[in-house]
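A sample follows:
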Amino acid sequence: MRTGIIFGCKTICINFTRFNQIIMKKLTTLILLLFCLTGINAQTYKAGLIAFYNLENLFDTIDNEGVLDEEFTPEGLDRWTGEKYLHKLNNMALAISRIGEDEGWKGGPAVMGVSELENRKVLEDLIDHPILKESGYQIVHYDSPDLRGVDVALLYRTRFFRVTASSSNELKIFDEKGERVFTRDQLVVSGIFDGEPMHFIVNHWPSRSGGEMTTRPRRNAAADLTRHLVDSLLAIDPKAKVFVMGDLNDDPSNESLRKHLRAAADPDEMKEGELFNCMYPLYKKGVGSLYYRDGLNLFDQIIITPALVGKDYSTYKFYKARVFNNQFLVQKDGQYKGYPLRTLVGTVFQGGYSDHFPVYVLIVKDQGK
């Protein structure tokens, strides 16, 4: 008797007469998890990996007029040279290629939102890196009005996802003096994921610089815009599969997430109109994606609409969430032991990756029905 799982577009077959041997040599962690938890041994599954990663200042070395990027130049405060830029690209490509490796995933996420990047060119350099070249990534990117020039974007592998529409949505917010705060736009990308319509909203909400309480209204406003974008998609299709992702600069329990975005903590207790915050169960266990002012936080989140929740795997559904904090991404010693291994600490080049860990969700689909 044979059965199997389709991982992406690849089918791995299992001969149960040699089951133990093949487990050791052939099977991925994902297959084992699916067999154990679904209790279905004679079905075929597909899986998709959706991720988000704050790239922590992926800047080139060029001083662009009208953008506050002078520190990321050879003459700037950070002494940002071509050598350092290439080192940063190599590290980011390596990190992206390994996201999901514990699930047996290869080549980087199928779809990944990214933030803290300077422009489209740095993304082109990233996906053209030899580590990622064969993954076949493409880019959806718009310039944002952020004063430092940092943007959000979506990277996707064409073997999994085809884009049909995209838009950049401006967040107009003001400080306590009534002056405009220029921040990142919110990116909406719609398309077809392995035959199913799906939508991705990529965010980088306003920071806590200036104090959490003082800046809270800005993130609440960002959450209101995100909710409006979700509701617009649900108005067209009440069963739309939408992924909200980003560095939200708030934890899952903050009012921006709970009250304004209406992101619930438990998929089994969702009220009408609520979304499910896939990262909330991890947050309750004390898992974080970064350290902010020496406190562990889970600012990097992926939130989904109800159509992605449930046990009917005849179409893609949420399966699990994880903060990808494998040891190569972690500071091993010193004052910041246990923190994400950064590129820069102040102006000192550390040669690391990012001050955030990536986060991801697995979605699965039963191909036997």
Observations:
- Helices lie at 19-25, 29-38, 82-98, 120-127, 212-236, 255-260, 280-284.
- The chain has two domains: 1-43, 50-363.
- Residues 212-236 form the longest helix (25 residues).
